Amino acid sequence: MTQAMLWIVDIGALLALGIACARLISGPTQGDRVVALDVVFSATVVLTASMAMASGWALFLDLGIGLAAVGFVATVVWARLIDKSPGGAS
Amino acid sequence: MTPPTPPTPLTPRPLVLTTSARALYPIMLLISVWVLLRGHNQPGGGFIGGTIAVAATSLWAVAFGAKDALGRIPLGPVRLGAGGALLALSSGVLGPLVGRPFLTHLWVDLDLAVTTIPLSTVLPFDLGVYATVWASLGAICAHAIGLDEEAEA
Amino acid sequence: MLVLTPILVPLVTALVCAWLPISRQRAVAVLGSLVHVVTATLLLSEVATHQALRLELGGWPAPFGIELVVDRLGATLTLLAAVMGAATFVYGLSDADPGPRAKTRIPLVYGLLAGVGGAFSTGDLFNLYVWFELGLVCAVGLLALACTRRSLEATFKYFVLNVLGTLLFLIGIAYIYATTGHLGFGALRQAALHEDGSRWAALVAVLVLASLVKAGAFPVFSWLPAAYHTLSAPVVGLFAALMTKVGVYTVLRLMGDVFPTAPGLMNTALAAVAIPTMIIGVLGAAHHWDIRRILAFHSASQIGYMLLGIALGTVSGYAGTLVYVVHHAVVKANLFLVAGMIHRTTGSFDLRRCGGLFVARPWLAVIFGLSAMSLVGLPPSSGFWAKFGIVRETIVLGRFAWTGVVLGVGVLTLYSMMKIFFEAFWKKAPDGARMPSGPTGLGPAYLVTGTLALVSLGVGLWPEPLLDWARSAFVDHNLATATEGLP
Amino acid sequence: MASSIPTGEPTGDAPPTSRLIVLALLPAALFLLAWRALDGGFEAHWTWIPTFGLDFGILIDGLALQFIALITGVGTAVFVYGAGYLAGDPKRARIFGLLLAFMVAMLGCVTSTNLLGLFIFWELTSVISFLLVGTKHEYEATRKSAQQALMVTGAGGLSLLAGVVLLGQVAGTYAIPEIVATSEAWIDHPWVPAALLCLFGGAFTKSAQFPFHFWLPNAMAAPTPVSAYLHSATMVKLGIYLLARLHPAFGDLPLWQGTLIGVGGFTSVWSMVLAVKERDLKRILAWSTVSALGTLVMVIGLPGPGAATAAATFLLAHALYKAPLFFVAGNVDIAAGTRDIDKLAAMGRRMPYTALAALLAGASMSGLPLSYGFVAKDIIKLAKSQADVVTLVAWSGVFVGAASVAAAGVAAIRVFWHSGGRPLPPEIREVRWSMRIPPLVIGATGIVFGLAPWLAEPLLALSAAAMHTVDDGSAFDVEPGTPGWTAVAVTIVLGIGMFVVWDPLHRALHRVRFPKRLTPGHAYESFVRSIPHAAAAVARLVQHGRIRLYAQLSLGFLALGLLWVVARLEVPQWPSYQPPSIPIIGATVALVAASITVCVVRDRFLLLLAGGLVGLACAVVFVFGGAPDVAFTQLTVEVALVVVIASVLLRMRRIGVGGDILATDSIAKGSNNSTAAGDRPRLDPLSWPRMLIAVVTGVSVATLLLVSVMGPFDPAVPRFFAEHSVPDAHGHNVVNVILVDFRAFDTFGEVCVLLFAVLAMLPLFAALRGRRRAP
Amino acid sequence: MMKIHAAVVLIYRFVFALVTSGLTTAWVILRPASELQPGFIRMSFGAIDRRGAVLLSGLTSLTPGTTVVDIDFERHELLVHLLDVREAEATVRHILEHFEAPLTLLCPLRGRP
Amino acid sequence: MIWWLAVGVAATMSAGIYLLLCRDMLRCIIGISLVGAATNLVVFASGWTRGHAVTTPPFVPDDATVLSGAANPVPHALVLTAIVIGFALVCLSLVLVLEIVQQQGSTDSDQLRDAEPPMDEHGKPAILDDVSPWDDVARAERAD
Amino acid sequence: MSILSAGLSTGLSAGLNTSLNTSLNTSLNIGGAVVAIAGIVLMVIAAFGLFRLPDALARQHAATKSVTLALGLVLIGLALHQTGLDPSLAGAWWSRVAVTILLLLLALPVASHMLARAATRQAFSSQQLRASPRVEPDAQRAAAGGGDPDAPPTDRDASR
Ligand code: NA
Ligand code: NA
After folding, report:
1. What are the Cα distances from residue D114, in Å, to B152, D119, D197, D205, G117?
2. Taking the CA of residue D173 as centre, how many other CA atoms within 13 Å lie in the half-sphere pointing to its CB?
3. Mean pLDDT over each residue of chain E, to the nearest integer
4. How far is the C-alpha of C421 from the C-alpha of G90, rounded, in Å?
5. For residues E45 and G141, what is the distance between their CA atoms, to the nearest angstrom?
6. Using DSSP, how many helices (H) and how many strands (E) does chain F show?
7. Is residue C102 left, alpha or beta, with left meaning phi > 0 and alpha meaning psi from -120 to 50?
8. Residues of D35-47 as b/e, b for ≥16 C-beta within 10 angstroms?
């Protein structure tokens, strides 16, 4: 059951990752991209959690913690930069 | 009570950002130090701790400006970076002082009444790595964020 | 601890200078250079009595930790780096184009010296890569220091091609590691004994290819003539002395020492790189009228000689390359330094705008003449013995075509050096040339360039110590794959 | 050519003879000292370069002694003459210094026992000659002459070096006596012909033999003392010296004989033809020097016992007449301000001493009886007859002799006694004593030796013995005194005839349309001219300034190298297939997708994001490859990269560089005509060579990875880390233990790299900040 | 004690808001898009200090369908983006009812009437 | 697993090299970062002996003193530092290009012809204006 | 921070170790899996929202709120499942999951706010924003707190 669940979780996370990446790439505004980036980070946290379970090493969750922290910073920083920038959509 | 100015589209410096940056900056630095300290046995260490501190600096830079963020790096980025490298170096020099090769780490168990704390030269080494990574990458990120600061200049 | 000094002395100097304000950097740098030269000399004398100095860092035994190994090859180049670092520093005290007064300049220079020193003294492949990176970053910093359009352009070209080389080097390290499980030179040497066959050669070839980029061999040399001439005089002197030499050193270390069992086809392939490098370099130089650009192309050409010495694959060839490296570092740096003085005196680096120096600055003419003779390889100069070692070995091995190229390129080198001599020294100063009438404040520059010219001359007159030393640097490795030549 | 240059030399009652004349005491003393070696010779050795088996040795035997006598004797004269000639010349100190250095180099060359030592001094003489030829370096013509002299002799020197090394390799030594002594043993070595050809290259360039003869007349740009010393009496004879030195070893080889006789003979004839084409007195003398050198070369090549004697004798004779004639030409030049024989006439009345010297030397040059030239030519004839050479060679001597007579006539008769029909300018008068005595003394010596040839015999006998093939004392067996009077008469009569028709002959020769492009001098010129062209072509090829093409060249080379490396792989073992986890599949797909995206995408942000995606995929690989530390670092770094990239791109947009990557969105000042987006040239259209290079590199790198992981991997190091991490390094995170302990030095270095990267960036950031502040 | 109670209430409402807003947004995604009518409104808040304003904005953002775009502290106004402006009135009332009171208690605006 | 990774390496490396050959300097830099990423993957995989990827992280459990059955930690350490360095290099190049763009107004690397200007009409190299910006500064400093 | 997490983990694992039995383990397994899968489904839906929703501002709702909730659910689900699988790891898991979720909760409003600002800045002009209506559920408060919404606009951004 663990395997099946992890399989589903992995697939789901990758799916979310893929969709988010598609939005990341297709834009069209910077705002869209930074929104997508946030999703990317969250999906990656899911992947680390899945790895933590699959490997039996809880320490992969630490990765998730760090990722949540710095991912947040990335989102905020990028959003703020867009917020400050003069023009409209790229 | 009449506000002094008419409604604005977007305030230039978001209150949410500055307030949360004030709160998160020390927390993130604490996390980074924690990651640094536990690095010898758990994931972490100087490099990773340093990069988390860099995230804190970036956050501060984006909230309060690059200059302010650089000013919050103790000693300033160049001196902290150089000092970190020198610290790492000096941790290696203790080895030769007791007749062991350079960069030989020494371990001493500090016997307090309650508990013994293992002290070692690994910590200053990793601390030096942490300091330099923070200072260097923090300077890069803060300066980069500062590239776009003309609105406030 | 002495083994550490090639790295730590310049590095600590750099770090302390980075800490200090610009007004107090110079004093530290003087001290650093002094200690650097003294320790490098001590190191050399140590190595002369012991075979090689080793230090297992952190006390971890050799195949496991990082080992620093300074043998005669490394010690020689370390001393070279220290001396050239000190020389260019003293030269920088004159007002011959000292370069932008930036707070980061002295730290970057000493960082570069540390990177170079690290490359010369490490006994570990990945550690070598680390020092490569340090040198690269510092070089980029020095190139970009002026922030002019020209210097940034040079920086970009330098950066792209050199980073590529560095990354390829790292890939090569990964291959070697994946195959052997080792990174230390000693363990790799052992592993190489059991390895032969094409796969091994292929993996070593990747490392050599990457080193060729650093060395500035044709056709991966474009960064060199694109970048050198944008630097200020003392820095370009340092670059000329050391940058490409690190690449040559690496090729020498890899092919001559660590992986000596690499088959002979590699040597032929290296010659196939070295010979076009010599020719293209010397022809490219003949095209130019800017002294620094002439000299930069000549650097490439001379790299060809050094690589050819390695390609010979014998002790004499390797020794010839070592002698050549030492000679070229001194002489080419000196020529670049003289170019800076010419610029200071005539206001231009372009030969079409210089002139009249033979009369106006006779001692400069003497210094240039001695160095140029040395570069051409006319006796009695260090260049003659450097070239002779390689010519002789090509003949010993019956590679007459190589001999022909070596000698023919010499003629073209002569042509270029004469061109500089004619235009800058013999020709009358053209109208509008701004020759300063008063003192030019070139005292330290004369001291340095004069000394270096005398060093070259001295080596030319009594080369035996250097030749014998260079030979001994390789003889004891017992690596000769070809028979010793006579006489 | 050189005569057109204003000399700037002192005339008439200009400053007195320079005090530098005391320097003449040095060669004079050496000259006297050298005679002490006449009985027994002198030999000395010092260890010099054992690495190459080199001793620095000095050997003064007969041949060396003759050359020493020549160098110091003529040297004394030159120093005396030069003190007068260069009086008041601001460059005189430098010239004297160089002449002294030159003398030392010459002495070193002729006394060195070691071929390599000889070579070193040989090259030194070339360099000093270059500097002396370039005395009047302000003039381009002078510089060209100097360049030519050094290029030709320098290239010859390199050839000589090759020859020396080859010979050293064959003979096992560089010591000349040993080479000579052991030549029997290795003379059949296949490398010997190559060595000889290389040696010839050196000797012929130095001694201006065809086809390298052209540089010598051009070197007449040098002041007269220099020409007299270097380019007639001494330096140009170094080639002769070398050939004479090695003659004992190779004299019996047909290659040796054939080449020397052929080249020397032809040179001696051809250069006299060229002499007739000249009007400049100094150049005429120069060509006759070339001719004499050719004769010497030929004579050395002659088999038979007389050759050595003939060579030694002619060597002496030539020095005795050519040096004074050069002095004479210099005197004429000083007095009249020209060396053009058309403008010179009837100088004898005003310059009686110079005219006398000219007569004395001219007689010798003509080989008139009672002069030493006569003795020499006679011995040469004898040597030829002994050698049984072909008639053509024998009779070439008659032509050369006749032409010499004519040239001597021009120099000694025409200039001084032939009245050109024009009145002599009043300012012409005899030169000062220091310029009169040297030609007179040497010229007179020639006559003295002609009257009493036995005076020179001890020296010449020794010299000839040294250059003779068999050391049996037969060298000097040629008894002079049986002159072929007919031949002498024919030569002199012919010579007088040529002298008489010198001008018509000159005009006739100029009318002959010789294909100029075939002359060696022209070949040299084209070679020198072609260097810049070839160089420009090379520069166009390798220094076009376009980084992408640099990268293309470099990467093409690397790709080729990698391909070569991969192609040379023997059928390797490949890793077995191991089914991957889903995230790895996802990461791979992401890598491929991102890779394709970055290549085709137009938008800058997209490009950077796709690049960031690669980093993310790498992080996934690291996570599922069991490396949380690495993944963590990758992710945090990725975040920092996002920050930096976003900042940089936003700044770019502020500058005005838009999002579209394929368009040249230049805002370069001046080109303010804003082109529509559709008109913009596409910067980076997809190109096949680039793709090919990229794919070859990528696939090769991956292939080599698959190949290299097949081991044989020695697990000792990771095992050591696994075992010692906790007990000895007190850490459970082995990666961190490696970073801070096992391989802490790497970490330290990398940390420094980071710091210095920041130092490198600080000026850039400062510049960017400064630009923002600027309006 | 009042403050602790207020804080506990706030945290509870915070988590509750998070869950409901997450699910609501998911529902918004899944239902046909044409039903939405997004837009901005402005909303003033009471005597709360800066920290309180930030907290309020955070809580507002967690309310389903709303996001605070800007805080104009000088005017004591929030600029709020709504997924559906037709529900503006109800949303604003909900926010003020649930969050303003505890925040006024926790972070009162000092130095102002 | 290594086969999949090899595919990823090949793709990333190829794309990186392709971008390096482009005229746009920004593309060049992304090319460098891609090549760097591919390099990191190669180094990472160099610990997979015979292509067999061990995915257990190299941490010694709290109750153990010897690591067993875990991934080879050496490449991890090497990659870790390489990542940080790669980041610094990419940042350096980004800022460098930004300053170039600031000065020349475009990211076209073909316009980088200031240090290597084209030849003049006679095929001779152009004279570089060799008065460096700090030249006058140095002179002024000497003056006082 | 570390003390807190250490204490939490020891406490939790001790408690769970003693009290759990096999059936509880199984139910934890199944329950955890359900929660995790529900979370991941929610995440996919949210990601899907990046395409379904009309503009960046609307997408931001999906990206922040739904994704955060989804992530929380996945983490809690996995932690539950892990507790069922191997109670000895439960402490380590729960402490870390708690920290992560705490972090997410802190980050969510800020990120959401910043994202919304960015999206707004890119998609809407100053005029549009000024024209946004003021919604006042309570008329008295409006009089006390607000100025005149229709006052002539002066761009404060520009004046700085
Ligand atoms: Na060089
Ligand atoms: Na490392």
Report:
1. 80, 8, 19, 21, 88
2. 15
3. 82
4. 82
5. 8
6. 4, 0
7. beta
8. eebeeeeeeeeee
CB contacts of D744 in chain B (<8 Å) are 88, 92, 103, 105, 125
Mark yes or no for CB contact F95/B144 under 8 Å. Answer: yes
Mean pLDDT for D100-108 is 94
Residues 69-98 of B with CB under 8 A from F: none
- State residue D744's pLDDT score: 93
Give the dihedral sign, CA D564/D565/D567/D568.
positive
Probe site for chain C from F23, F25, F43 (most C CB atoms < 10 A): F43
Please give the distance, rounded to the nearest whole angstrom, from the Cα atom of residue F111 to the centre of ligand 1.
27
Q: How far is CA B43 from CA D630, E66, F57, G39, in A?
A: 9, 38, 10, 27
Task: Tell me the shortest Cα–Cα distance from F62 to chain C, in angstroms.
Answer: 24
What letter does residue F118 receive in the DSSP assignment?
A: P
Residue D678 has pLDDT above 90, yes or no: no
Q: b/e per residue, D351-375, with b = 16+ CB within 10 A? A: bebbbbbbbbbbbbbbbbeebbbbb
DSSP codes, E67-79: EEEEEETTTTEEE
Strands D42-49, D54-60: pairing kind: antiparallel
By the CB < 8 Å criterion, does B12 face chain E? no
Contact between residue A17 and residue A24 where contact means Cβ atoms under 8 Å apart: no
Q: What distance in Å separates the CA atoms of residue C240 and residue B13, rounded to the nearest whole number?
A: 51
Confidence (pTM): 0.91
pLDDT at G160 over 70: no
- E87 alpha carbon to ligand 2 midpoint, in Å? 58
- Angle (CA) D270-D273-D277 rounded to 5° is 135
CA nearest to D300, candidates D187, D449, D464, D453 = D464
| Position D96 confidence tier, pLDDT thresholds 50, 70, 90 | very high
Asked if D169's CB is within 8 angstroms of C487's CB, the reply is yes
The 3-state secondary structure of D595-641, one letter per residue: HHHHHHCCEHHHHHHHHHHHHHHHHHHHHHCCCHHHHHHHHHHHHHH
- Decide if pLDDT at D480 tops 70: no
Q: CA–CA separation, D577 vs D307, rounded Å? A: 85
Using a threshold of 3 CB pairs under 8 A, tell whether chains A and G touch: yes
Per-residue confidence (pLDDT) for residue D667, from 0 to 100: 47
pLDDT by residue (tens digit) across B46-96?
999 999 999 999 999 989 999 999 999 999 999 999 999 999 999 988 888
* Distance in Å, alpha carbon of A55 to nearest chain F alpha carbon: 7
φ and ψ at residue D480, rounded to 5 degrees:
-70, 165
Provide the residue count of chain G. 160
Complex prediction ipTM: 0.91
Question: Residue B118 forms beta bridges with which residues?
Answer: B109
Give the DSSP H/E element, type plus range, for residue D186: helix D176-186
Identify the H or E element spanning C332. Answer: helix C315-346
Residues facing residue D280 across a β-bridge:
D340
pLDDT of residue F90: 94
Which DSSP state fits C425? I
Tens digits of per-residue pLDDT, E55-100? 888 888 877 788 888 888 888 888 888 888 888 888 888 888 888 8
Distance in angstroms (rounded) separating the CA atoms of residues D242 and D287: 21
Whole-angstrom distance, CA of residue C173 vs CA of residue C167: 10
Listed by number, the residues of chain B in 18-37 with a beta carbon closer than 8 Å to a beta carbon of chain E are 19-20
**A59 part of contact set with chain F, CB < 8 Å:** yes
Residues in chain B closer than 8 A to D615 (CB atoms): none
Pairing of strands D54-60, B107-111: unpaired
Contact of F103 with chain C, judged by CB distance below 8 Å, is answered with yes
Which chain D positions have a beta carbon within 8 Å of A17's beta carbon?
Answer: 586, 590
Give the C-alpha separation, B6 to C299, whole Å.
Answer: 69
